[in-house]
Protein backbone atom coordinates (compact mmCIF):
# COMPACT_ATOMS: atom_id res chain seq x y z
CA UNK A 1 0.00 0.00 0.00
CA UNK A 2 1.27 3.40 -0.91
CA UNK A 3 0.05 6.12 1.42
CA UNK A 4 0.06 9.61 0.00
CA UNK A 5 0.30 12.91 1.89
CA UNK A 6 -3.03 13.84 0.25
CA UNK A 7 -4.75 10.86 1.92
CA UNK A 8 -3.41 11.96 5.29
CA UNK A 9 -4.56 15.53 4.69
CA UNK A 10 -7.98 14.16 3.75
CA UNK A 11 -8.15 12.21 7.03
CA UNK A 12 -7.07 15.34 8.87
CA UNK A 13 -9.93 17.25 7.24
CA UNK A 14 -12.40 14.59 8.35
CA UNK A 15 -11.06 14.60 11.91
CA UNK A 16 -11.42 18.36 11.86
CA UNK A 17 -15.00 18.14 10.61
CA UNK A 18 -15.83 15.57 13.32
CA UNK A 19 -14.34 17.70 16.05
CA UNK A 20 -16.35 20.69 14.84
CA UNK A 21 -19.55 18.61 14.93
CA UNK A 22 -18.81 17.20 18.38
CA UNK A 23 -17.98 20.68 19.65
CA UNK A 24 -21.15 22.15 18.15
CA UNK A 25 -23.29 19.47 19.83
CA UNK A 26 -21.76 20.19 23.19
CA UNK A 27 -21.94 23.94 22.72
CA UNK A 28 -25.60 23.61 21.74
CA UNK A 29 -26.55 22.41 25.20
CA UNK A 30 -27.97 25.06 27.51
CA UNK A 31 -25.37 26.13 30.05
CA UNK A 32 -27.61 25.09 32.94
CA UNK A 33 -28.51 21.70 31.48
CA UNK A 34 -27.92 18.85 33.95
CA UNK A 35 -26.91 16.72 30.95
CA UNK A 36 -23.81 18.83 30.43
CA UNK A 37 -21.92 17.00 33.17
CA UNK A 38 -22.67 13.68 31.53
CA UNK A 39 -21.33 14.82 28.19
CA UNK A 40 -17.85 15.72 29.43
CA UNK A 41 -16.47 12.72 27.56
CA UNK A 42 -17.90 14.04 24.30
CA UNK A 43 -16.26 17.38 25.02
CA UNK A 44 -12.94 15.59 25.54
CA UNK A 45 -13.48 13.61 22.36
CA UNK A 46 -13.65 16.88 20.45
CA UNK A 47 -10.26 17.85 21.92
CA UNK A 48 -8.76 14.51 20.92
CA UNK A 49 -10.16 14.79 17.42
CA UNK A 50 -8.60 18.22 17.10
CA UNK A 51 -5.23 16.82 18.13
CA UNK A 52 -5.68 13.83 15.84
CA UNK A 53 -6.27 16.21 12.93
CA UNK A 54 -3.11 18.13 13.80
CA UNK A 55 -1.07 14.91 14.08
CA UNK A 56 -2.37 13.67 10.75
CA UNK A 57 -1.41 16.96 9.12
CA UNK A 58 2.05 16.72 10.65
CA UNK A 59 2.40 13.16 9.32
CA UNK A 60 1.37 14.40 5.86
CA UNK A 61 4.12 17.02 6.00
CA UNK A 62 6.74 14.56 7.26
CA UNK A 63 5.85 12.05 4.58
CA UNK A 64 5.99 14.65 1.82
CA UNK A 65 9.39 15.81 3.07
CA UNK A 66 10.68 12.24 3.26
CA UNK A 67 9.46 11.46 -0.25
CA UNK A 68 11.16 14.54 -1.63
CA UNK A 69 14.41 13.51 0.05
CA UNK A 70 14.12 9.89 -1.04
CA UNK A 71 13.99 11.06 -4.61
CA UNK A 72 16.99 13.31 -4.34
CA UNK A 73 20.53 12.19 -4.95
CA UNK A 74 23.69 13.01 -3.10
CA UNK A 75 25.28 15.18 -5.78
CA UNK A 76 28.87 15.28 -4.49
CA UNK A 77 31.12 15.96 -7.48
CA UNK A 78 32.94 12.63 -7.12
CA UNK A 79 31.74 9.05 -6.66
CA UNK A 80 32.46 6.73 -3.73
CA UNK A 81 31.91 3.09 -2.77
CA UNK A 82 28.41 3.10 -1.23
CA UNK A 83 29.73 0.95 1.64
CA UNK A 84 33.28 2.11 2.16
CA UNK A 85 33.39 5.70 1.03
CA UNK A 86 36.41 7.30 -0.48
CA UNK A 87 38.16 4.06 -1.37
CA UNK A 88 37.93 3.97 -5.15
CA UNK A 89 40.81 3.58 -7.55
CA UNK A 90 40.13 4.34 -11.17
CA UNK A 91 42.08 2.84 -14.03
CA UNK A 92 41.20 2.74 -17.69
CA UNK A 93 37.56 3.63 -17.00
CA UNK A 94 37.11 0.98 -14.35
CA UNK A 95 36.68 1.97 -10.71
CA UNK A 96 37.49 -0.53 -7.97
CA UNK A 97 36.89 -0.25 -4.23
CA UNK A 98 40.15 -0.99 -2.46
CA UNK A 99 38.25 -2.53 0.48
CA UNK A 100 35.52 -4.73 -1.00
CA UNK A 101 36.97 -5.03 -4.53
CA UNK A 102 33.61 -4.15 -6.04
CA UNK A 103 34.10 -2.72 -9.52
CA UNK A 104 32.19 -0.31 -11.74
CA UNK A 105 32.88 -0.31 -15.44
CA UNK A 106 33.10 3.46 -15.67
CA UNK A 107 35.13 6.16 -13.96
CA UNK A 108 32.88 6.31 -10.92
CA UNK A 109 35.32 8.48 -8.99
CA UNK A 110 35.27 11.10 -11.71
CA UNK A 111 31.49 11.37 -11.85
CA UNK A 112 28.90 13.14 -9.78
CA UNK A 113 27.55 10.93 -6.99
CA UNK A 114 24.11 9.53 -7.85
CA UNK A 115 23.50 7.59 -4.64
CA UNK A 116 20.31 8.32 -2.65
CA UNK A 117 20.52 10.90 0.12
CA UNK A 118 20.38 9.15 3.52
CA UNK A 119 22.05 11.57 5.93
CA UNK A 120 21.70 15.14 7.01
CA UNK A 121 24.94 16.57 8.29
CA UNK A 122 25.00 19.82 10.22
CA UNK A 123 28.41 21.37 10.73
CA UNK A 124 29.50 23.37 13.73
CA UNK A 125 28.21 26.66 12.34
CA UNK A 126 24.84 25.15 11.41
CA UNK A 127 25.27 24.61 7.67
CA UNK A 128 23.27 21.57 6.58
CA UNK A 129 24.22 19.22 3.79
CA UNK A 130 22.58 16.08 2.53
CA UNK A 131 24.67 13.10 1.55
CA UNK A 132 24.71 9.38 0.87
CA UNK A 133 26.03 6.52 3.02
CA UNK A 134 29.39 6.50 1.25
CA UNK A 135 30.05 10.21 1.50
CA UNK A 136 29.05 10.40 5.15
CA UNK A 137 31.99 8.13 5.99
CA UNK A 138 34.45 10.72 4.72
CA UNK A 139 32.51 13.54 6.35
CA UNK A 140 32.63 11.79 9.73
CA UNK A 141 36.40 11.75 9.55
CA UNK A 142 36.74 15.30 8.27
CA UNK A 143 34.05 17.29 10.06
CA UNK A 144 34.73 17.59 13.76
CA UNK A 145 31.84 18.73 15.89
CA UNK A 146 29.26 18.06 13.17
CA UNK A 147 25.91 16.41 13.84
CA UNK A 148 24.92 13.39 11.79
CA UNK A 149 21.27 12.47 11.45
CA UNK A 150 20.12 9.41 9.55
CA UNK A 151 17.09 10.60 7.60
CA UNK A 152 15.00 7.44 7.46
CA UNK A 153 15.41 6.99 11.21
CA UNK A 154 14.32 10.54 11.88
CA UNK A 155 10.58 9.98 11.80
ZN1 LIG B 1 33.68 -0.99 -0.99
ZN1 LIG C 1 27.40 10.49 -2.30
Describe the model.
There is one protein chain. By secondary structure, the chain is α+β, with helices and mostly antiparallel strands. It folds into two domains: 5-70; 88-153, no CATH class. It is 42% helix and 14% strand. The chain has helices at 5-28, 40-70, 133-142; strands at 88-91, 94-97, 103-104, 119-122, 128-131, 147-150. It has a three-stranded antiparallel beta sheet, with no helix packed on it. A three-stranded antiparallel beta sheet has the order 5-4-6, with helices on one face. Strand 2 and strand 3 form a beta hairpin. The protein is elongated and about 85 Å long. The two termini are 19 Å apart. The mean pLDDT is 91. Bound molecules: zinc ion (ZN) (2 copies). One zinc ion is lined by residues 81, 83-84, 87, 97, 99-100, 102.
Which class do the helix and strand fractions yield? alpha+beta
Number of domains: 2
Strand order of the largest sheet: 1-2-3
Number of helices: 3
Give a brief rundown of this model.
The protein is 42% helix and 14% strand.
Describe the protein's topology.
Layout: H1 5-28, H2 40-70, E1 88-91, E2 94-97, E3 103-104, E4 119-122, E5 128-131, H3 133-142, E6 147-150
Antiparallel strand pairs: 1-2, 2-3, 4-5, 4-6
This protein binds zinc ion (2 copies).
One zinc ion binds at residues 74, 76, 80, 113, 115, 131-132, 134-135.
